[in-house]
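Hello K.,

You asked for the raw outputs rather than the summary table, so here they are, unedited. I folded two proteins back to back in the same session to keep the settings identical. This is the first:
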Amino acid sequence: MAIVKWTPMDVMDDMDRFLDASWMPMIPQRIMNPAMDVYEDKDNVIVETPLVGIDPSKVNIEIEDNILKISGQSSHKSEVDDKSYYRKEVRYGSFYRAVSLPKAVIGEKAEANYKDGILHITVPKADEAKPRRISVKAS
């Protein structure tokens, strides 16, 4: 029996080819959903998301009811004719992502930094979300 190479079916590639078809001009631009890492330290909830090649001034960040929303626009400026691509996987256009934060936070004190293509958001935890040490009194 011969060994046959297994190639998984990539539904997203098939869907992209369908949506990119020239006979579908009425479909709006696809919206990208950037990946996120959400973690915490003692005092903050921290969110990191890669936004490589995106102008930080075109990124909108909102926190409302412990839901972090990141949106913006990435543009593609290329002189290459679409017909000469062998594979086109880099996505351009609008992006949006909303995630519920795991702890109560103080959204007004959030800070965002963009370095080396990574958006780093630090949001202080609300006092009720921080662990408290309670001493036991003997009587």
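The second followed immediately with the same parameters:
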Amino acid sequence: MKTTLAKPETVTHDWKIVDATDHILGRLAVLIANALRGRNSPLYTPHVDTGDYVIVTNADKIKLTGSKEEQKKYMFYSGYMGNEKYRSVADFRLKRPEFIIQNAVRGMLPKNKLASQMLKKLKVYRGTDHPHGAQKPTPLIS
């Protein structure tokens, strides 16, 4: 039996949609990262982007377990001495809830050039509306 390796020019990318309402952040990020990498496809090849496009709606309604809402901090550092800033999940939920899901998925992707291509296929939106209706997305979680 021969091993089939996917080629970038023959791979077709589907569109998946998931509603983040009342889903736990880490568990949802694993499903999204696996779909972006193509781990759910029989043609999965580690060095080729075989994954699907993923649309996430209702990013502001995602759940975190325990007291992570106030205790989990994201650090930003500009490179200047004494200029590191910390922001909590509650701050991001008000201003940029898309960042919470994108950052969790980014941490679960491989650390290489292919990961930046995969992350471009992730579309996260605050509410239920998205401009990708023409692609006819199918549900990621059934």
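Residues 15-63+96-128 form a domain with the Ribosomal Protein L13p; Chain: A; fold (CATH 3.90.1180.10).

Happy to rerun anything if the numbers look odd on your end.

Regards,
P.
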